[in-house]
Amino acid sequence: MDDDIQEGGDPAEAFDRLRAVIEGQDRELALLRRAVEGLAAERAHIDVPDYSETLGRMQQGVDATAERIAVINDVIARSPALAMTPEQMAQRIAAAGNAARREDQAALAKAGEDKVRVMAELRAIAGSAWTRADQKNRQLCFGLGGAAIGILAWTILPGLVAREIAPASWQWPERMAARTLDLPMWESGQRMMRTAAPDAFANIAAGDRIVTANREALEACRKRANRAREAVRCTVNVEADKGTR
Fold this sequence. Notes:
- By secondary structure, the protein is mostly helical.
- Among the domains are: 2-83; 85-165.
- The chain is built from nine helices and no strands.
- It is rod-shaped.
C-alpha cells in the first residue's frame, strides 16, 4: 500500500490512490469475513482438519488491518487538506496566492506612498534651504547697498549743508576740512594750499619769511608813508635760502 501511495509527486493524485487502495482493502476484508464465516458454518457438516488456530490468526490480522484502516480514515477525516478534493485544493492554493499577491501589492503601494512623502519632505527642506540662502544674500546686498548709500550721503550732504545752509561765520566747511585732515585749521590750510599749488604756496611762504624778518623796518616805513601820504622806500634784509652759500 505504501508503494502505491508514494508513486508520483501530485498530492491530489496520491489522495485518490490512497482512497482507491483503502476501498480495495475494504472489499477484500468483506470477502475474507464472508469466507471465514462460511467456513465456520460448514465446519460441522464437513470433516476437515481443525483450522481454528489458523483462522484465529487470520482474524487477528484482519482486525489489525481494519484498525489501521480506521486510523487512516480518522486521520483523513481530521485533516482538512487530506479530506479536500483536487479541485478544492487547487482553489485553496489559488486563494492563498491571490491573498499573498494582494498583501504584496498593498506593501508596494505603501512603499510608493512613503517614497513620495519622503521626496516631498526632501524637496521642502531643499527649498527652505535655498530660500534661507537667498534671504541671506539679499540681506547682504541690502546691507552693502545701504552702507554705500550712507557713505555717499555722509560725503555729500554735510558739505551741501555746510555751504548752502549754515552761516559763513560758523566756518563749517573749513572745520570739516580740518577734521578730515585731522590737523588744526592753520596747518590744514597750508597743507591744502601746498597740495593744490606748490609754487604759489612757496611764494607765499617766502613772503611771510621776509615780512617776519623785517617786521620792525616795515612798520617804520608804513608809518612814514602814512605821514607823507605817499609811497616811501624801505630797506629790508633778505636771508639766503638754507643750504646755499
